[in-house]
Write a structure and sequence with these properties.
This protein is of the alpha+beta class and 252 residues long. Helix content is 31%, strand content 19%. The protein has 7 helices and 9 strands. The strands form 2 sheets. It has a 5-stranded mixed beta sheet with strand order 5-7-6-8-9. Strand 8 and strand 9 form a beta hairpin. The protein is globular. The two termini are 36 Å apart. About 8% of the residues have low confidence.
């Protein structure tokens, strides 16, 4: 991804600058009435610099006179900006509203009801009041450490249950096989072995649950692991120590 963006940025620097690129008279009201761009047109522009890009969305950016084009390259996501004249590409990390500087960003939220808990692997009491879904990968080092932290939480609390949603990442070549075995066996001892890096046998059943988990993760915008989702839909990304994890579970 970085190589693609660096190449694209270099191409932009090499292009001749236009002093009036953004000074022409623009729309005073609804810019969408005057300017149009669909995914096919955006793809034709973006692919000149990022051939492997798959366009996922085209929308008006927070800065008028620019289109925001969201794209994916394999499992990575990114955005570029195209001016209304469709002659210039801008590659920036993000557009930050000045009013938001210094303020804590709003946490991401998803629809918890879309997570099928009955297809996940349960760690903790089934009737626990606090339900946490964990999108995780047995070969992800941070997931392995989080698994240990989750067990530490469960030792102290009987009101918490973790629902393991197996989400093996493409570049962890053996994670898919291990995940399928865990889903077939539904054995927490085997789950512990997998997250401890111990050998895991081949799956003895057929399941399409991994594909469903991946589709849901894509819908939620999850591209890595681990990701925890609280029952109110709030998302926590990455490894969290047991004490902080316990505090986050209660913070609603």
């Amino acid at each position: 991804m970085k190589k693609f963006l660096i190449l694209l940025f270099a191409l932009l620097l090499a292009a001749p600058a236009a002093a009036d690129a953004f000074t022409a008279q623009g729309c005073g009201g609804d810019c969408m009435q005057c300017h149009k761009m669909d995914k096919k047109e955006a793809e034709g522009i973006v692919k000149k610099g990022i051939p492997a890009a798959k366009i996922t969305d085209v929308k008006l950016s927070p800065v008028k006179a620019l289109w925001q084009v969201d794209f994916e390259v394999e499992t990575q996501k990114g955005s570029v900006f195209i001016d209304f004249s469709k002659q210039y590409l801008l590659v920036v990390q993000q557009i930050v509203p000045i009013a938001s500087i210094g303020k804590r960003p709003e946490p991401q939220k998803v629809d918890f009801k879309k997570i099928k808990l009955d297809t996940a692997l349960l760690m903790g009491p089934k009737n626990a009041k606090q339900k946490i879904a964990v999108f995780t990968d047995p070969d992800c080092p941070y997931c392995q450490k989080l698994h240990t932290e989750m067990k530490a939480v469960l030792k102290k609390r009987k009101d918490v249950a973790f629902y393991i949603v197996l989400f093996p990442l493409e570049f962890h070549k053996d994670a898919d096989r291990k995940s399928r075995t865990m889903l077939c066996e539904k054995d927490l001892a085997l789950v512990d072995d997998a997250f401890a890096g111990k050998p895991v046998p081949d799956p003895k059943c057929q399941t399409d649950q991994i594909e469903k988990n991946k589709a849901l993760a894509r819908e939620f915008g999850f591209t890595g692991t681990p990701v925890l989702v609280r029952s109110d839909g709030e998302v926590q990304v990455g490894l969290v120590p047991a004490d902080r994890l316990s505090d986050w579970i209660d913070k609603k």
